Amino acid sequence: MTSTATPDKSKFPKLIGNKAEGAVKKLSVERDYFEYRLLLALEASGDAVSVALLNYGGCVAFKQHNARFGHGEYLVDMVQGLMEEADASFSDLTHIAAGCGPGSFTGLRVCLSAAKGYMLATTATPLGVNGLAALAVDSIIQGQTEQKQSGPHLCFADTRRNSLFVQEFGPQANMLSPVRDVPLKRITSYIEEACLRFDGLCLTLTGHVTDLAALVSTEKRIFCQPRSLDAQMIGRYALRSLSLPHLYPCSGFEPLYVVAPKLGLAKRQVWYDRP
Known about the structure:
275 residues, alpha/beta, Nucleotidyltransferase, domain 5, 7 helices, disordered C terminus
């Protein structure tokens, strides 16, 4: 690559919340555009592992594999296939973004370990992303596209322990609360309390929220937007953090553990109690 000219961004789709529908998306991109900014995004905190290449024009390529377990078996091969689909090399990468959770402990370790490996092998800048914040931004973008009234967002993720991670965000994706671990039996009351706190405002529930709105016995206006976090959302959030760091802060590759992992005390107890 020898050209250093900045490409015409009008050739590329606007950076809005396109869903990519789980398929590999490839754009016809000139090689000099990769010199401008190319970001590799990784996400494995939930029931799927996904990887994406993005620039300021949008998503260059995307791959996803739905698997509740075994993310580590697929991630590296998916990244290699992604780079080949985009006709890019790892030396083209300027940034690497990774979902830091909250979510599956094993999935987070797999994702962040891979991200650190790629970072050490390249000169790319690391960008760690709060997955709930990425959900909020994606939901806000969708609301703006559909011209819906913007209000507070409650973002949910499955803990796989009969509870949900939840965090509250304002209409500009500003954080209004820390991440909380709420038992399923308290979700209804938690949402109703949020309706009271945000009295008069439209409330959007997004993330792992299938049928949650039906559980709320209130006349408050609630929009329910189920969505699964993926690498495209992580990448879009990370790109925004480069131009708006005060609104979209990113950290290093440190996992966001809301609660300490259960390290198998019961398993060891069973082992020692065996006759």
